[in-house]
């Protein structure tokens, strides 16, 4: 069984009481809410009832319309039709100000904090103090401090928000909402940016708030978190509400099925393989980024043929620099890179590609594709100059077209018409183009950074299968992802990167989420929790 | 919380400012070593400080205007046009209205109108803010030249009513300081007074926090119920009004209170540079304006003394200082995070 499967099963949901609506008043009701964007229906006749003092999860895939719906509630978007009722009163929420006045607060997925402002400035922004137009920070500080103490935000309120950890920033966001008198708190994908232990803390905080009478709407696409924290769960798919479940009376499988609309496997099918010889070695690599900050600091990494190595780490600990130096996009000022016994430290990117190093960049739209070019041309971005795609400096369009046709079919890229602009494809199909380009030539090494970011379950599992198939053909794979579940599910070996070094590399079966989370946060390996089955179990 | 100006930044600006001035003076000295004593005499004369302050005032006003706009996230390279149109308006309005105050108010109004155009292009139409500014600058140059020729076709140099130097009891009679600092016209004191006022508004009031938030992270501001478009419009309008007043200061900086074609001669761009030099802080900006003013005053005096350097080279001095200051400071200068980026409400 893979790590993710173990994880999914070992997390037992909080012992829930079945949710009873008796004696509870609905605080928020949506009736037949419709929101369209340029022809696309983001919310299609959505009905939703949220009761006072519950944690109500909105579960759905990326693009299911959860965030859009909540932005309508928060007044950032206007519904095209439908009604919103707050405490049984029909309301029109034109601006966030109206929402705040109605006691609705929202913590956005991408924090709406100003890094250059202090905590207190962020909290009072947009509010009138008693001494208006003076800021009156001193008065505000007293009140904000009580919140901060309550939530364990242990940083002086004059600290710049940019200097806080992500977990602390999230607390500032929550304080911001509550300081404005929020009684309904919308949390949009709050755990996406958190370490496992920070997630646990957030869930405790959420429970505390709920016990204090705050209603929480929790947006997520992560099943186990939703099961752990919520009282009721509303599943959305393609802009519509599928159903609302009582958390105590549902299962992960039932939820997953209603999310994607078909039976799905929660894990990646993968046979054990005996890894081959070391294929790529990075030794003592040191590199700086464009601003001169140290990004790689004596990093050692060995990729073996026929093995998937997962690299876990908080974004910004050198992952980007590592990928770039392996691909020859960034120079090392110390250390070297060996590929099949050859030193390629100073080899040009084109030659590395030709030698069989391939790469799925983090951002398909800015780094992976030329959006204004056709699918066919994008598939050949690395080889269009060489035969058989070009001869005597002229491109051979017939060969290009035939080849592109074959690859689009092979990788199930839709629509299967390679002459269309890549821009017109859906995100999942765009990513398939990037993956197809990397795997088309049976590479010896594949560096995949966030290979399934923002994709639906269908496209993600397809890409996972392709990566596993590449491994089975003997490719050495490095997966870099901020989704720990993805790393756990795919990897044969898992490394953790912290401040430009690998702190540990272990077989996937001999590590677990809590250990990885501990190391990601900068903990020492000798102090990390051990034992394969031990998991972070949210609020059990 | 917010200090007036971080100590390191202050040390830097004083250090580099002094360095640049010293360098320039040293260059000229090297050219004519025999001039040492006479140039020293120029620099320590109270009239020199006086002239520097007079030259700094239009820069200071324009730079404060630029600051307000840029903190809201709208680059204001159109300062040049605001200053030039402000100057032309100040001149004609004080001439026709028989009062420099009429000129000042008219200049503010004219600057406000240019600000309105810049705001419309940059905020409503979301066009490139630099392109909008370049267009406005070219327009201002041509429009003021045309207006001047139409209204003053005779070519007779008409002197408009200007702000008279004040005589402050006791202070104006002090030796040295009386001439250097305490016998200026009212506009110069108003401009200097505007520095702490701007600082106070920016860092101690809700208005300032709102303004800065819109320039740093407009989306975050709008989730806190702030109307980004409205704040930016107000900021650019105010910026235009203040920068327009710099035109009035420019006209009264010449003792004869006269206008000529292209009177601003790139001072708007120097003001733009002063904003960066001062690291988007009103106190720092006033240092920048005074530094450039010193350069301007030095240049004029060196010309008058006939140091034997071609006067065209001396004319370059303030711009040279700008160039060196920008190259030195742009490297690590961080303006408002969302500066120059148009903002859209949805998606």
List keywords for this structure.
heterodimer, A: 540 residues, alpha/beta, 6-stranded mixed sheet, 18 helices, 22 strands, disordered C terminus, B: 347 residues, mainly alpha, ABC transporter involved in vitamin B12 uptake, BtuC, 15 helices, 71% helix, globular
Secondary structure topology:
The complex is a heterodimer of chains A (540) and B (347).
Chain A: H1 3-10, E1 26-37, E2 40-51, E3 55-59, H2 66-73, E4 81-86, E5 89-91, H3 96-101, E6 104-107, H4 119-124, H5 137-151, H6 166-179, E7 184-188, H7 196-211, E8 215-220, H8 223-229, E9 232-237, E10 240-246, H9 252-260, E11 278-288, E12 294-304, E13 308-312, H10 319-326, E14 334-339, E15 342-343, H11 349-355, E16 357-360, H12 364-368, H13 375-379, E17 390-391, E18 394-395, H14 397-410, H15 427-439, E19 445-449, H16 457-472, E20 476-480, H17 484-490, E21 493-498, E22 501-507, H18 513-520
Parallel strand pairs in A: 3-8, 3-9, 6-7, 7-8, 13-20, 13-21, 16-19, 19-20
Antiparallel strand pairs in A: 1-2, 1-4, 4-5, 9-10, 11-12, 11-14, 14-15, 17-18, 21-22
Helix pairs in contact in A: 1-17, 5-6, 15-16
Chain B: H1 7-31, H2 36-44, H3 46-71, H4 79-97, H5 100-124, H6 129-151, H7 177-180, H8 186-204, H9 206-216, H10 218-223, H11 228-253, H12 267-277, H13 282-305, H14 311-315, H15 317-330
Q: How many separate domains of chain B?
A: 1
Output mean pLDDT of chain B: 87
- Shape type of chain B: globular
The CATH architecture assignment of chain B turns out to be Orthogonal Bundle
Class of secondary structure makeup of chain A: alpha/beta
Count of helix runs of chain B: 15
Mean pLDDT of chain A: 86
SS class of chain B: mainly alpha
CATH topology of chain B: ABC transporter involved in vitamin B12 uptake, BtuC
Gyration radius of chain B, in Å: 20 Å
Number of helices of chain A: 18
Beta content of chain A comes to 15-25%
Largest sheet of chain A: 6 strands, mixed
Distance between the termini of chain A: 23 Å
């Amino acid at each position: 069984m893979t790590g993710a499967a173990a994880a999914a099963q070992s997390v037992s949901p909080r012992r829930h009481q079945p949710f009873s609506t008796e004696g509870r008043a609905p605080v928020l009701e949506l009736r037949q809410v419709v929101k369209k964007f340029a022809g696309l229906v983001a919310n299609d006749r959505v009905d939703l009832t949220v009761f006072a003092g519950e944690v109500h999860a909105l579960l759905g895939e990326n693009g299911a319309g959860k965030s859009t719906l909540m932005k309508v509630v928060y007044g950032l978007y206007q519904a095209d039709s439908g009604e919103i009722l707050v405490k049984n009163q029909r309301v029109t929420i034109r601006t966030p100000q109206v929402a705040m006045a109605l006691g609705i607060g929202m913590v956005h997925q991408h924090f709406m904090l100003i890094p250059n402002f202090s905590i207190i400035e962020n909290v009072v922004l947009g509010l009138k103090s008693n001494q208006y137009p003076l800021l009156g920070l001193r008065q505000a500080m007293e009140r904000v401090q009580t919140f901060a103490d309550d939530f364990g935000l242990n940083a002086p309120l004059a600290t710049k928000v940019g200097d806080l950890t992500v977990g602390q920033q999230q607390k500032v966001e929550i304080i911001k909402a509550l300081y404005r008198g929020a009684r309904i708190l919308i949390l949009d994908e709050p755990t996406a940016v958190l370490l496992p232990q920070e997630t646990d803390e957030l869930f405790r905080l959420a429970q505390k708030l709920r016990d204090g009478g705050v209603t929480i709407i929790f947006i997520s696409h992560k099943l186990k978190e939703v099961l752990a924290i919520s009282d009721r769960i509303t599943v959305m798919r393609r802009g519509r509400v599928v159903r609302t479940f009582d958390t105590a009376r549902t299962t992960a499988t039932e939820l997953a099925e209603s999310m994607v609309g078909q039976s799905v496997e929660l894990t990646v099918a993968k046979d054990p393989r005996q890894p081959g010889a070391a294929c790529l070695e990075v030794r003592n690599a040191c590199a700086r980024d464009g601003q001169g900050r140290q990004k790689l600091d004596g990093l050692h990494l060995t990729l073996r043929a026929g093995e998937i190595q997962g690299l876990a780490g908080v974004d910004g600990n050198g992952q980007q620099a590592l990928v770039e130096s392996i691909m020859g996009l960034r120079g090392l000022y110390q250390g070297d890179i060996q590929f099949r016994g050859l030193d390629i430290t100073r080899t040009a990117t084109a030659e590395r590609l030709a030698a069989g190093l391939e790469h799925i960049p983090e951002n398909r739209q800015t780094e992976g594709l030329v959006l204004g070019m056709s699918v066919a041309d994008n598939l050949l971005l690395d080889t269009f100059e060489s035969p058989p795609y070009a001869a005597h400096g002229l491109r051979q369009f017939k060969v290009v077209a035939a080849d592109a046709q074959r690859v689009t079919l092979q990788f199930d890229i839709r629509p299967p018409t390679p002459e269309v602009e890549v821009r017109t494809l859906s995100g999942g199909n765009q990513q398939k183009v990037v993956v197809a380009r990397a795997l088309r030539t049976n590479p010896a090494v594949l560096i995949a950074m966030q290979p399934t970011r923002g994709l639906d379950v269908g496209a993600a599992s397809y890409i996972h299968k392709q990566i596993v198939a590449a491994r089975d053909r003997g490719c050495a794979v490095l997966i870099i992802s901020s989704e720990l579940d993805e790393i756990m599910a795919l990897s044969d070996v898992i490394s953790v990167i912290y401040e430009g070094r690998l702190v540990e590399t272990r077989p996937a079966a001999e590590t677990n989420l809590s250990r990885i989370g501990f190391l990601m946060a900068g903990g020492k390996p000798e102090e990390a929790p051990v034992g394969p089955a031990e998991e972070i179990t949210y609020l059990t | 919380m917010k200090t007036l100006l971080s100590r390191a930044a202050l040390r830097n600006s004083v250090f580099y400012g002094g360095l640049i001035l010293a360098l320039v003076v040293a260059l000229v000295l090297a050219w004519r070593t025999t001039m040492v004593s006479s140039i020293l005499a120029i620099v320590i004369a109270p009239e020199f400080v006086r002239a520097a302050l007079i030259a700094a005032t239009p820069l200071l006003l324009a730079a404060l205007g630029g600051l307000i706009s840029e903190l809201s996230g709208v680059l204001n390279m159109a300062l040049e046009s605001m200053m030039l149109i402000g100057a032309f308006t100040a001149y004609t309005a004080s001439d026709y209205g028989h009062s420099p105050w009429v000129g000042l108010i008219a200049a503010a109004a004219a600057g406000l109108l240019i600000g309105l155009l810049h705001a419309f292009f940059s905020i409503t139409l979301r066009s490139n803010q630099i392109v909008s500014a370049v267009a406005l600058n070219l327009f201002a140059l041509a429009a003021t030249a045309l207006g001047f020729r139409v209204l003053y076709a005779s070519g007779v140099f008409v002197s408009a009513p200007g702000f008279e130097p004040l005589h402050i009891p006791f202070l104006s009679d002090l030796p040295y300081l009386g001439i250097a600092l305490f016998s200026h016209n009212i506009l110069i004191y108003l401009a200097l007074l505007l520095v702490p006022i701007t600082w106070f508004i920016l860092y101690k009031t809700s208005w300032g926090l709102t303004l800065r938030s819109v320039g740093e992270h407009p989306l975050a501001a709008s989730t806190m119920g702030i109307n980004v478009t409205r704040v930016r419009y107000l900021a650019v309008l105010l910026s235009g009004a203040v920068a327009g007043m710099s035109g009035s200061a420019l006209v009264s900086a010449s003792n004869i209170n006269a206008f000529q074609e292209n009177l601003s001669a790139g001072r708007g761009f120097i003001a733009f540079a002063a904003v960066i030099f001062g690291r988007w802080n009103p106190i720092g900006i006033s240092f920048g304006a005074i530094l450039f003013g010193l350069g301007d005053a030095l240049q004029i005096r060196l010309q008058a003394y006939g140091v034997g350097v071609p006067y065209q080279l001396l004319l370059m001095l303030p711009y040279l200082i700008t160039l060196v200051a920008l190259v030195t400071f742009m490297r690590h200068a961080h303006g408002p995070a969302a500066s120059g980026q148009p903002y859209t409400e949805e998606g």
